[in-house]
Design a protein that fits this description.
The protein is α+β, with helices and mostly antiparallel strands. The protein contains 4 helices and 14 strands.
Length: about 190
Amino acid sequence: MPLRSFSTTLNLPVKTFNQKAGRLQTRKVRDRTYARPFISCSIKNMPTITCRFLPENPNNRIAAGEAIDILPGDLFIHTPMGLTAYLPTGLFWNIDQRASNCTKPEPHRCWRWLDKPPNVTVVQGDCENGAGSISSYYPDGKRYHAFLWHGELIDIEEAAENHDYWLTLSVDDRSRMRALTPPGKFPWAD
C-alpha cells in the first residue's frame, strides 16, 4: 500500500568546529529530507504488529519522489537518529533518541534495544521514566501504548481491554507486561 507523504522540517543538532572559539559547537540544522508518511486510522485495533527491517531509510526514497510501501512496525536506520520504528498512529518512534517524558538532564539512552532488526526487543535504558514502552496518539485522540518485544509491537491498551488478545500472548509476555505496568491494569488473572 503506497502511502502519500508530506515534507516536514526538523531542527537537528549538529556538531561543528568553531574556528574562532577553537572548539566544537552544537548548532541546529534544518533537515528537509525527513518526510512523514500518513496512514489511515483503519489499522487501529491491530493488537500485535510484526516488524520488518528496511535496509534503506524510506525517507530517502520519499525525498526522491518515489512511492514506497511503509507499514506499521517497519524498522529502519535514520541517520543521525538511529533505529526508528513506524507506528500505527502514523508517527515515527526514534528508539535511539531521548523520550519526550524524560527529565534526566545529562546525555543518556532512554531506551535500549537488544538483538538485530527485525527481531528487536526494546527495554528501559538509563532513564527513570517508562518501562521500555512507547506511547503515541491517533489523530482522533485514542492512545496507542506498546512494547516492542521479539520483533513485534504489542499493544498494552488492547491487551488490557481484550481478554482474547491477552490470551494470545505467551505466559512470559503476560508476566512481563504485568510487572512493567501499574497494578490493576489487567482486570483478569492468569
